[in-house]
Specification:
Chain lengths: 297, 297
């Protein structure tokens, strides 16, 4: 597939998604400050990788991707709430995200926590409000079940807990994988699985797509760690020594930089192999996979 | 109805609920610290007024109250998460709740925030997992819709935002009612409405029960403010002067103590009138109403 076909797919769907997010928050009958805080982080940009995975999965099944607008918005709200809470002083204490002040820097800690809570809560309402012609009642419930499991204690929240609990400890590869599979992997996986649920796919296809997304999620995280390290090298203008490579709890620190690159390739190959086995028309999902392998930010 | 019949109804259902809460958290495959933090606050006691309202509503329709176990657990999880987040240093900064150290005092701010997030997320999963013989798929979706609306930006979270935004400001009675109707009222109302939804009640009955719960919620809050004031009098051993009565943003401060007592009686009467109009067998709901009118803690 030509990259420009995917670029157009991505920009069209990003725009649709962003309009939906804005509209859904604007229509809330709520104090304006909480709506502003919700929108501030929803509109802070980002690659919208989770929504795109969902749309691309619907595309693989030959379905109208618009069916996925509300679940995609719900997933992006959950991702956004997790960033707001993770940035808080008592968590990662980050002042900047994507070059802009973090939510609590603008709205204060209390409103940041509450804006996160509101986004998380609203996400489930959005799925309950999918039009009946876009999904059966049992399909909507399956989406809610998958989304809450992927984002709660057994998924994303559990990963964040393990990440904080593991700070300043020597992590094994298996500790590190637990953190990433849960903290970022589960919601990425759920984005693909949600598309398959909407398509009323067979259990076998859901399993394949879920494995595809599992490997994609790990590849995403390994690439992140590699970019961090290479970014650091660029910043200081020379190869970083063992200190930076050994920065705890990253793939390069455990596997070496070359080992991390090899692991990245391996997960990308495994992801593509699962995709192929689905027998679906997975051009868009492949394009996202290539993007994740080679992304430079 | 004899008070002891309600007392037995309440203690039986509290026990069932508490077992369900414990079981549901214990079965999570998640880092133990987040499960401990979730259970710590779920098991900190409390009147379980929201679950009891739900069970009492099912009883009014002559239904098996066990049908309500999962939605009741979901509502109690949402109530509990809201207490954990409200107690945080950046919100009300409370060190004690019901005589025990607050969640963040025991587990730290980060795990307290995450335990709250996990409880909120899990609550929607519980509803999606109600057995098909206990509720149709469309009924479960109606529950999720009602619960997310009652607890998000348009409900409880919106009320908490307004409460924080109104701190140290002169509140009118209408400001104060907005805060209470949203911060505590909406979830109380939802507890009753959830029972009616489970009973597949007519829209007219749902509306009546919703109005009943609206007045009950306001009565609950007014009684709270009166208890605070009288408790303060008891603590200092004499009638409190205008300073305490004028403590900002309470019913006695706006209506005087006598005015607050009159408003309490009025909301109790309005609540009972709505109940009567339902034509249901509302003994248990009446017992809860009497309890709220006369409670001393």
């Amino acid at each position: 597939m030509q990259p420009k076909i995917f670029a157009s797919f991505a920009s069209t769907h990003k725009q649709l998604l962003e309009e939906e997010l804005r509209e859904r928050v604007n229509k809330l009958v709520a104090p304006s400050v909480v709506k502003e805080a919700m929108l501030y982080s929803l509109e802070a940009g980002g690659k919208r990788i989770r929504p795109l995975l969902l749309f691309a999965t619907l595309d693989a099944f030959g379905l109208d991707t618009k069916k996925g607008l509300l679940p995609a918005a719900a997933i992006e709200m959950i991702h956004t709430y997790s960033l707001i809470h993770d940035d808080l002083p008592s968590m990662d204490n980050d002042d900047l995200r994507r070059g802009k002040p973090t939510n609590h820097k603008v709205f204060g800690d209390a409103f940041a926590i509450l804006a996160g809570d509101a986004l998380l809560t609203y996400s489930f309402q959005l799925i309950a409000e999918i039009r009946d012609e876009d999904a059966h009642a049992t399909t909507k419930l399956a989406l809610i079940q998958a989304l809450s499991q992927a984002s709660g204690a057994e998924g994303m929240v559990g990963g964040q807990v393990a990440d904080i609990a593991g700070e300043d400890k020597d992590l094994t590869l298996s500790d590190l994988e637990y953190i990433h599979v849960h903290k970022t992997g589960k919601l990425l996986e759920c984005s693909v699985v949600a598309g398959a649920i909407l398509a009323e796919a067979t259990e076998e296809k859901i399993q394949r797509l879920s494995k595809f997304a599992y490997h994609l999620g790990l590849a995403f995280q390994i690439r992140d760690d590699i970019l961090d390290l290479e970014g650091e090298e660029e910043r200081i203008g020379k190869r970083v020594g063992s200190d930076a490579v050994n920065k705890k709890g990253t793939y390069p620190s455990i596997l070496t930089l070359d080992g991390a690159k090899a692991a990245l390739s391996e997960h990308i190959e495994l992801a593509k192999a699962q995709l192929k086995e689905t027998g679906l028309s997975t051009h868009m999902l492949e394009a996202i996979t290539n993007l994740i392998e080679t992304r430079d930010h």
